[in-house]
Amino acid sequence: MNGHEVAQQRREGLRSRMMRALGPAGVFFKGFVEEPRMVGSVIPSSRFTIDAMLEPVDWQRCKLFVEYGPGVGTFCQPVLDRLPRARGEERGGEMLVIDTNPLFIDYLKRTISDSRFHAVLGSAENVEEIVRMIGHDKADYVLSGLPFSTLPEGVGPRIVEATSRIIRAGGAFMTYQFKAEARELTARFFPRVTTGFVWRNIPPCVLAWGWQDETTATTPAAVPAV
Ligand SMILES: C[S@@+](CC[C@H](N)C(=O)[O-])C[C@H]1O[C@@H](n2cnc3c(N)ncnc32)[C@H](O)[C@@H]1O
Fold first, then answer.
1. Segment among 16-20, 48-52, 66-70, 176-180 with least mean pLDDT
2. Distance of alpha carbon 69 from alpha carbon 124, whole angstroms
3. Contact indicator for 197, 205 with CB cutoff of 8 Å
4. Which residues does a 6 A CB cutoff place in the pocket of ligand 1?
5. CA dihedral 172, 178, 179, 184 (to 10 degrees)
6. What letter would DSSP give residue 144?
7. 75: domain range?
8. CB under 8 Å to 6, separation ≥6 — which residues?
9. Could you read off the pLDDT of 30-44 as tens digits, one per residue?
C-alpha cells in the first residue's frame, strides 16, 4: 500500500467512526453529502411533523403503509408503533419503505428488526410492482418524504400517478415538503386534498393529504398548524 492509499484508508476509518458516533444523524448527513438533490435536506423531520402527518390515518383499517424516501427511518418506528398487530387469523398491518439510496436501506435493515417491516432498494416510480412483490394488491396509505422540487425531470409526476393507482379507495397519499410542489402534484392526481403546516420543523413545512375517495374518507377539512 502506498502513502496515498494509507492516508485514504485513515480518512475512511475516521469517517466511519464519526458516523457511528453521530448515529442516525450522521448517516443522514452522509446521504445528503453524497446525493444532495435526491436527499434534499440536511436533517430529518421533527416529531411535530411526524405527529401532524400521521394524525388523520385510520390505523385500524391499515393493512399496508408505504413510505417513499425513509432516509434513516424517522417515521418508521412511529408508524410501526401505530399499526395494528395480527390477532388470531387476522393479518396485522405491514410497512413497506422504498429508497433509492443503498446507504439508507442497509441502515434500516440493520436497525429495524420487525417482521412487519419491508425495506426495498428501488425507486418509488415502481411502487406497483414492489407492492405486489411483497404480497399485497393495494396500499392503504403512502407517505412521501421525497424532495419533489429537486428530483430529475418527469420523475415526480410519474411517482404520483403510480401512487394514485396503488392506493385503495378511502386511503391517502401524504406529503411534507418545504415547498408547495408536492401539494400541487397531489392535486393533479387525487380528487381531494387537505393541507396543514408545521412551524416546528427545520425548515417549517407544508403537509398535504391526497384522498383517494371523497365519500369514504374520514378526515378533518384542514389540520391546524402546529
Ligand atoms: C428528505 S429525505 C427524507 C428523509 C426522511 N423521510 C425524514 O423525514 O427525515 C429524501 C429521501 O428520498 C430518497 N429518494 C430520492 N428519490 C427517490 C425515489 N425516486 N424513490 C425512492 N426514494 C427516493 C432519498 O434517498 C432520501 O432518503
1. 16-20
2. 8
3. yes
4. 38-41, 44-45, 68-71, 74-75, 98-101, 104, 123-124, 145-147, 151, 155
5. 0
6. E
7. 39-211
8. none
9. 766 676 666 556 577
Domain count, the chain: 1
CATH code (residue 174): 3.40.50.150
- Cα–Cα–Cα angle for 37, 41, 42, nearest 5°? 120
Residue 219 belongs to some domain of the structure? no
Q: Which of 5-19, 125-139, 171-185 has the highest mean pLDDT?
A: 125-139
Query: Which protein residue's CA is at the shortest distance from atom 3 of ligand 1?
Result: 145
Q: What is the largest CA-CA distance in the chain?
A: 69
Cβ neighbours of 223 (radius 10 Å): 18
Residue nearest atom 9 in ligand 1 by C-alpha distance? 44
Report how far ligand 1's centroid is from the alpha carbon of 87 (Å).
33
Give the closest residue (by CA) to ligand 1 atom 26.
39
Q: Out of 33, 98, 146, give the residue to mutate to test ligand 1, the one with the largest number of ligand atoms within 8 Å of its CB.
A: 146
Q: Whose CA is nearest to atom 14 of ligand 1?
A: 69
